[in-house]
Amino acid sequence: MTSFKHRRSLEEVFLTLLSIPSPSGKENQIAEYIRQYAESLGFEVREEVEDPSLGETGNLVIHSFTSFPPHEEPVVLVAHMDTVPIPLEGKVPLIMEEDLIHTGGVSPLGADDKAGVALALHVLEKVSKEPETYTPVEVVLTVREEQGCLGARHFSPSRIRARKGICLDGETPIGTAIVQSPTKWKYTIQVQGKSAHAALNAEEGVNAILHACRIGAALPTGLLDPSTTANIGIVEGGTSINVVPDRCTIKGELRSFEEARLLFWREEITKQVEEATNGNKYRTPGSVSPDKLFPQSSISWELAYPGYTLNKEEPLLNRFQLGCQTLGLTPQFLSSRGGGDANYFNAKGIPSFVLGLGMEGIHTSSERYRLSTLHEAARLLEQILCSGTGPITFLNDSPIG
Amino acid sequence: MTSFKHRRSLEEVFLTLLSIPSPSGKENQIAEYIRQYAESLGFEVREEVEDPSLGETGNLVIHSFTSFPPHEEPVVLVAHMDTVPIPLEGKVPLIMEEDLIHTGGVSPLGADDKAGVALALHVLEKVSKEPETYTPVEVVLTVREEQGCLGARHFSPSRIRARKGICLDGETPIGTAIVQSPTKWKYTIQVQGKSAHAALNAEEGVNAILHACRIGAALPTGLLDPSTTANIGIVEGGTSINVVPDRCTIKGELRSFEEARLLFWREEITKQVEEATNGNKYRTPGSVSPDKLFPQSSISWELAYPGYTLNKEEPLLNRFQLGCQTLGLTPQFLSSRGGGDANYFNAKGIPSFVLGLGMEGIHTSSERYRLSTLHEAARLLEQILCSGTGPITFLNDSPIG
Question: Is B235 within 8 Å of A248 when comparing Cβ atoms?
Answer without folding.
Answer: yes
